[in-house]
Design goal:
The structure is a single chain. By secondary structure, the chain is mostly helical. The protein has one domain. 60% of the residues lie in helices and 5% in strands. It has four helices and two strands; from the N terminus they run H-E-E-H-H-H. GO terms for molecular function: zinc ion binding. InterPro entries: Znf_DskA_TraR, Znf_DskA_TraR_CS.
């Protein structure tokens, strides 16, 4: 795979990594014991029943969002690690080259479209 393309993808992935971490920091605290693990903060809107209900609803939404963002962050981290290892752009299932258009659209892809569609 072309080194300029890999550098371009590495730049995109690092930007995604930064954005995901910033998004998580907006409503969660970083877990000091686990890398890239966050704990959603429980909001405090007041003590009225309506406020408490909104707190619980927002907390549940944030827990779901935290999970999704952490999964995306793990994919980005894995792709950056594959760049370091020289394995970026190769399908981790079949070993064939991942289409550069797929990587442009989803830089964290670790499988080719054929293998992705098998799952």
């Amino acid at each position: 795979m072309d080194q300029n393309f890999i550098k371009e993808m590495e730049t995109k992935l690092k930007e995604q990594q930064k954005n995901l971490r910033n998004d998580l920091a907006g409503f969660a605290e970083k877990n000091v014991h686990k890398k890239d693990d966050y704990n959603t903060k429980f909001p405090n809107y007041g003590s009225k029943d309506e406020e408490n209900a909104v707190e619980v609803a927002d907390f549940q939404d944030n827990l779901s969002l935290e999970s999704d963002l952490e999964k995306n962050l793990a994919k980005v981290d894995k792709a950056l690690e594959r760049i370091k290892q020289g394995a970026y752009g190769k399908c981790e299932r079949c070993g064939k080259k991942i289409d550069p258009e797929r990587l442009q659209a989803f830089p964290a892809a670790t499988t080719c479209l054929n293998c992705k569609n098998l799952t």
